[in-house]
Amino acid sequence: MLAQLAALANPHRLRIVAALHEGGRRYVSQLAREIGISRPLLHLHLAKLEEAGLVASRLELSADGKALNYFEASDFALTLTPAAIAIAAASLTPKSET
User: How far apart are CA 85 and CA 89, in angstroms?
Assistant: First the structure.
């Protein structure tokens, strides 16, 4: 849950998940144009989202032989309750006493 919340704490990443949810799977160049950010920056955000399990990728070859990396939103649901937060907090590394 912490990785998912951290990944969604960025406005670009929220836009990416929304675009993939609303429009279905996209290849990187297409998604970069839609979101209005560079491909290298998009790759960084997609890596964070994929690491958190919020998006999934698949490399496919186009008819002309170009490799296209397609991304789509993963099915996920976050339920924030005091109990869920307590479980997440228990998994945190304790602060060192100074």
Answer: 6
User: Residue 86's domain is classified under what CATH number?
Assistant: 1.10.10.10
Structure tokens at 92: 């945190």
Dump pLDDT digits (tens) for 14-44. 999 999 999 899 999 999 999 999 999 999 9
- For residue 31, give the nearest of 83, 48, 43, 98 by alpha carbon: 43
Q: Which domain holds residue 69?
A: 2-90
- Which amino acid would we find at residue 54? L
Alpha-carbon distance 23 to 40, whole Å? 21
Read off the pTM.
0.82
